[in-house]
Amino acid sequence: MDMKVTKKLGLKERYNLMTRDLAWTPTYQSVKDAYPQVEYEGIKIHDWDKFEDPFRMTMDSYWKYQAEKERKLYAIIDAFTQNNGHLGVTDARYINTLKLFLTGITPNEYMAHRGFARMGREFPGAGPRVACLMQSLDEIRHAQTQIHSLSNYNKHYNGFQNWHHQHDRVWFLSVPKSFFDDALTSGPFEFMVAIGFAFEYVLTNLLFVPFISGAAYNGDMGAMAFGFSAQSDESRHMTLGLEIIKFILEQDPDNLALVQAWLDKWFWRGYRVLTLVAMMMDYMLPKRVMSWKEAWEIYAEQNGTALFNDLARYGIKVPKGWEQACKDKDHLSHQAWNVFYNYGAAAPFHTWAPSEKDMEWLSAKYPETFDKYYRPLWTHYNEQQAEGKRFYNGTLPMLCQVCQVPMFFTEPDDPTKIAYRESEYEGVKYHCCSDGCKHIFDSEPEKYVQGWLPVHQIYQGNCFPEDVDPTRPDFNPLAEVVRWYNIEWGRDNLDYADSEDKKNFETWRAQATGN
Q1: What confidence tens digit (pLDDT) does each residue in 7-34 have?
Q2: pLDDT by residue (tens digit) across 143-157?
Q3: Burial (0-12, 13-18, 19+ Cβ within 10 Å), 207
Q4: How far is CA 257 from the centre of its chain?
Q5: pTM > 0.85: yes or no
Q6: In this protein, which residues make up the domain named YHS (predicted)?
Q7: Closest residue by Cα to residue 246 from 319, 317, 314, 318
Q8: Is residue 504 packed enough to be buried (19+ CB in 10 Å), middle (13-18) or exposed (0-12)?
Q9: Cβ of 495: how many Cβ atoms within 10 Å?
Q10: Closest by alpha carbon to 109, among 150, 62, 56, 65?
């Protein structure tokens, strides 16, 4: 009996069969009606087939690779949990970095999932549609594995249980939330630049690499495992974002001005979100891998310069604000942690002033700025706390209308002077924290006047529980806002030194080690 020999398909042929050959041109409806957003922003695409996914991954291979990663990841997580791995971290200060990550980053993984699912519907081209579908699945997987990994800490420590509730309410969480709200309300091409560039390239390198290295350095194998499991996906995500940008630029010269404007905008928006990462690296990790300044020089200045050199052949220039961001590296983390120390009563994690040992490290890493500008501040706070006068700021700060970070950033060439910028729109004045945010506001004022700014909402009385009576003689607005946040006063917040987390951790570890 003769047997028919079937030639094995090559990678490119197989990829085309499983992606582009499954696409079709609609006939019952026009292409414009089927994909109404694709011309919304003015981007001109002449040939969607020119987009090349460098990974050429098909759905069957995707599930195979991801299933293998899941098997290894959950084996590590289960071992970490069963062996009380939480007692192996350096000390309970580290656990507050996980609370910051869970409330500030994990919900945005889910938002990215929603955004890329939408992009899989908006693009007429089969290549980017399939790539966006896989990234959408990656993003929801990241959210799920992060929640699962950190759920072990929820069994033992305060402040993990209300992360989703707090993401929509807590003052500083409006910073990452507004970033994704901004991206999701953009057109499809701007979304791809915003997330593919600002989130996957600018944010990912400066968040996942230092944070996950910090997790490993501080004995947290659970967080380390989900971080490295996600990082292999992130390499694809960064590549997709950059390939989309190059594809857009190659399709028509008229696209250059729009892409440059988006890179300017989203570099600055992503950089402002990194404020939270900067203070985490320098102040919240008990054992530090590197300083924020060192991380910026490696992952932003070196990598970013290489990226912009690569894009220069298309006419792309270094984004606006790049020079200021490079100047800010000596100041950003110190100024941010000072704000959180001040407003620790309204944060869903504990804060503290750095010890003398911490300040020696900071002095070594920031020899030109820390001792001159910031050591006197922390020395004063420590002296006040030693006298029983731990300072909490009872007022509310002015927020930037665009990035929604409190207005604490200083002028690029004068770290003793707060930067204030002002714009007027339809007779109303709006405040911004920098030239970068003011430029973004002035470009799209109709969008940013709609910002949900927590401080404004609190002063308008929109952030209190329903049973609150503001006319009561003992009415305490801060306590009621904290209750609306679902933060348990004294357990989830305030100073680390007197926290239940610290006392419980030390007691449990002493019992486990017999010391």
Answers
A1: 777 777 887 787 777 788 888 999 889 9
A2: 999 999 999 999 999
A3: buried
A4: 27
A5: yes
A6: 410-452
A7: 314
A8: middle
A9: 18
A10: 150
